[in-house]
Amino acid sequence: MKKAERALISLTDKSGIEGFARELEKLGIEILSTGGTAKKMRDNGIKVKDVSEFTGFPEMLDGRVKTLHPKVHGGILAQKTNPDHLRQMQEHGLQAIDIVAVNLYAFDKATADPNCTLAHAIENIDIGGPTMLRAAAKNFQDVTVIVDPADYPVVIAEIKEHGNTTLKTRFRLCAKVFALTSRYDTAISAWLDKVDVATNPHFA
Fold first, then answer.
1. In contact, 181 and 134? CB cutoff 8 Å
2. What pLDDT is recorded for position 127?
3. Apex CA 182: angle with CA 181 and CA 187, to 5°?
4. What's the average model confidence in pLDDT over 70-76?
5. Which tens digits make up the pLDDT trace of 122-154?
6. Which residues contact 78 (CB under 8 A, 6 or more apart)?
7. CA gyration radius for the chain?
8. Domains in the chain, CATH or no CATH each
9. Distances in Å between the alpha carbon of 199 and those of 112, 113, 121, 194, 195?
10. Among 144, 134, 151, which residue's Cα sits nearest to residue 1?
11. Of 128, 144, 153, 174, which sits 20 to 30 A from 135 (CA to CA)?
């Protein structure tokens, strides 16, 4: 397993991010980020590259489109032992993303408010986050995916010792992703099942 070189961090729950990102920076790992996560790290003196700079494409549609780009998903999904993947990466100027630290828009928190409108609920359905998480988890042989700040210390410790995380840890973290995305989609489905869109006065 080659040394980890690049991490993408995009978080709703930013607890512990300063320490985690600072350790990544000390290890020489380039950090890509978006929006409020990038701002929080910069405010703490951590060097960050915006995903829009990495992709060469701006965030748009009120932030709905920012990480949905081949340079992001190609970097996550490329198998580093597959010569054809490596050739295509070189051909299209793709760079590997070795660590993905993402958590999701707080749909449960938004819809727990009894005054939550359908429009507000819809805007709290995360699209880019689950897409990146599932891509990284699928490619766990090459990518470390983190959804829980409690896993930051073990990831840092293994990178310090080995230059990257162990396969055992990557597989454990992969399983956490699919458990999370399953719960997330179930919560969305359960809430939407209670809504009559035709009579909802707040949906536009």
1. yes
2. 87
3. 95
4. 90
5. 888 888 889 999 999 999 999 999 999 999 999
6. 85, 86, 88, 89, 94, 96, 139, 142
7. 18
8. 6-199 (3.40.50.1380)
9. 20, 19, 16, 12, 9
10. 144
11. 153
Q: What is the pLDDT of residue 202?
A: 58
Pinpoint the alpha helices (H) of 64-106.
70-77, 83-92
Q: Which of 87, 85, 66 is nearest to 77 (CA)?
A: 85
Q: Specify the residue for token string 């996560």.
A: 37
Instruction: Provide the angle, in degrees to the nearest 10, between the axes of the packed helices 152-162 and 167-192.
Output: 150
Residue type, 104: L
Instruction: State percent of the chain over pLDDT 90.
Output: 55
